Amino acid sequence: MQSNISFHEQISRNKRNSIFLIIFIFAILIGLSYVIGAIYSEFFFVILIFGIIISITYILVGYYKSDKIALASVKAKPASESEYRQIHHIVEGLCLASGMPKPKIYIMEGEQINAFATGRDPKHSVICLTKGAVKKLNKQELEGVIGHELSHIANYDIRFMTLTAVLVGMIAIISEIFLRSLWFSGGRNNDNKGGMILIIIGIVFAILAPIVVFLVQMAISRKREYAADASSVKFIRSPTGLIGALKKIKTEHQPMKVSGAVSPLFISDPFKKKMSGLTQTHPPIDERIKVLERM
Fold first, then answer.
1. Read out DSSP for the chain?
2. Residue 104 bridge partners (DSSP)
3. 95-114 burial, b for 16+ CB within 10 Å, e for fewer?
4. Which of 84, 185, 198, 231 is most buried, with most CB under 10 Å away?
5. Exposed e or buried b per residue across 267-279, where buried means at least 16 C-beta atoms within 10 angstroms of its C-beta
6. Contact, 132 vs 114, CB < 8 A?
7. Structural domains of the chain sorted by starting position, each given as residue range(s) with its CATH number in brackets
8. Taking the model in full, what pTM does it have?
């Protein structure tokens, strides 16, 4: 028989694991830069810095406009208080209890049960629900789902995942620049055995690093989902509503028509993909339910 776990323990554990994983990504970035730096002169770093600046600028623009971009991509519309009074009351009650500012509420088309939160901080946040979620979930289940999304906002998950995206993007750029530059290197460092071994190490590192950090990024995403589930229990003081919502989501098999860029934001995978656990942005629903049932 499995012992019960507290939501405080679950939140702390997943936050620790997420921080460890992001340190691991940073270590790979340092290691990759060191190996390539040992092969090339400062000319490489001029190109590298230019590429990194472009990447970071692109990501930061997306970060500060993340709510507008996400809402536009799913064609969401503001939820009027007259039509969606219950949703507004639930959000207001949970925000009042947790001391959070009330986020903007949006509704998107779709019969599937799903929701997402976005925004760079609690003062610039948005919660968006599908019409299917509003229609199919009862009040307790809606509280569980909204509590989950408020947890993402309260835990600054968008900011955390943006930092992860910056590091992963930088590693991808460094690897790409290095591999392409080999075609134009003119055989430098190829005239001795040590130089050739270093280049081979660099090639292997550049090929494997983006794959490894992508898998780590997916692991971080899954950890943040577990943490948001636990924080929802902290908000609601009961896992029952979220468990009920996840069980209803599990019975749905119709994928949603949304951009792949916003799919990690949703409370469950909108594409209903059957992929390896290592490449999933969300933990298996059965596993999430098991953890919640032990709280």
1. -PPP--HHHHHHHHHHHHHHHHHHHHHHHHHHHHHHHHHS-HHHHHHHHHHHHHHHHHHHHHHHTHHHHHHHHTT-EE--TTTSHHHHHHHHHHHHHHTPPPPEEEEE--SS--EEEE-SSGGG-EEEEEHHHHHH--HHHHHHHHHHHHHHHHTTHHHHHHHHHHHHHHHHHHHHHHHHHGGGSTTTT-SSHHHHHHHHHHHHHHHHHHHHHHHHHHHHHHHHHHHHHHHHHHHHS-SHHHHHHHHHHHT--PPP---TTTGGGBSS-TT-----GGG-SS--HHHHHHHHHT-
2. 126
3. beebebeebebbbbebebbb
4. 231
5. bbbbeeeeeeeee
6. yes
7. 7-62+157-257+270-293 (no CATH), 71-154 (3.30.2010.10)
8. 0.79
Q: Which of 48, 56, 44, 58 is nearest to 174 (CA)?
A: 48
Sequence letter at residue 20: F
- Positions annotated as catalytic residues are 149
- Region class of 146: left (phi > 0), else alpha (psi between -120 and 50), else beta: alpha
CB 190 within 8 A of CB 196: yes
